[in-house]
Amino acid sequence: MSCPPVIAVTSGEPAGIGPEICLRLADCSLDARFAARIVVLADRSLLAERAAALHFPCTLREWQAARSPQVGTLDVLHLPLAAAVRPGQLDAANSPYVLALLDRALDGCQSGEFAAMVTAPVHKGIINDAGIPFSGHTEYLAEKTATPRVVMMLAGGGLRVALVTTHLPLRDVPAAVTQGAVEETLRILHREMAAKYGIARPRILVAGLNPHAGEGGYLGREEIEVITPVLERLRAEGMALLGPLPADTMFSPPLLERGDCVLAMYHDQGLTALKYASFGQGINVTLGLPIIRTSVDHGTALELAGSGRADPGSLLVAIEQAIEMVARAAPVAPLARPGGSKQVSA
């Protein structure tokens, strides 16, 4: 690319730590860190108030694509809040604002204005309290782009962990782990590991659903009836798949050395180990979208909002990874398979 790519960063829940970790993007020490232009989507007055309260020296400048980056200056694409904000205090009135940030970043990615979007954390509960059904960035962006299935993958601490199901109550997981869901997730993961990470034939470690991967059917038959038939079909196509593996030993070093990424069946099965290994430096990547989207791996941390103690490390890594993905390859079209199921975790 002849010009540096533009990365849109949404500032997330205004009462959380998102605005202040975004302010850190103006830090002089970061001037040479990113081979890209960064624009933060936020209410400009919110950023100014948070910067003043934290005694954080930076200049907030209206985003214009023609302007060159300046040390100590944060380019801001202003979207107005609906209500005043106090750090740590949620207000459902601002939930439409939070989604407007996502919509504007997505529109910019789809039009080519932005090369990728990086998201600071949102608070699912307060968005739902506003009467807006919302189960997460992953599902929201899938619906907005009419993508039949996307895959949540977290990366950090030397691990990459993707999920068949995401934000579901645990009691609903077994019914959602179908052959179609497992197969489509593996196809997206295989394809996107090549497109976004440059691994042409990724080795994927696949977890079972039940303790001890079902213990030969004594602890559940999903491994026998659902997961194994899919693995056998895809191995016949040339995919390098190991499993189904017992989740309690899958993250041991000898097994991890045999894979490039892990596929877990549900949220906590895979992400507990990853967040233990990488918390504060891990990132979330949405695979399967027609755009590039990465995110922090943490929540809004309301108890830290306004304290100045929030660590921007995950946001910085998410931006770096998005830039690398932009440089590596153009985004791919979403998977469209005849008869394919909808995203099971919505």
Automatic annotation (TrEMBL):
Cofactor(s) needed, names only, are: Zn(2+); Mg(2+); Co(2+)
Catalytic activity line of the entry: 4-(phosphooxy)-L-threonine + NAD(+) = 3-amino-2-oxopropyl phosphate + CO2 + NADH
Instruction: Reply yes or no: does the keyword Cytoplasm apply.
Output: yes
Q: What class of enzyme is it?
A: oxidoreductase
List the subcellular locations: Cytoplasm
Pfam families with a match to the protein in the record: PdxA
GO function terms (MF aspect) = 4-hydroxythreonine-4-phosphate dehydrogenase activity
Return the InterPro entries for the record. PdxA, PdxA_fam
Q: Which Gene3D superfamilies match?
A: Isopropylmalate Dehydrogenase (3.40.718.10)
**Residues given in the record as substrate binding sites:** H137, T138, K275, N284, R293
**Functional note:** Catalyzes the NAD(P)-dependent oxidation of 4-(phosphooxy)-L-threonine (HTP) into 2-amino-3-oxo-4-(phosphooxy)butyric acid which spontaneously decarboxylates to form 3-amino-2-oxopropyl phosphate (AHAP).
Record's protein name: 4-hydroxythreonine-4-phosphate dehydrogenase
Q: Which organism is it from?
A: Candidatus Accumulibacter phosphatis
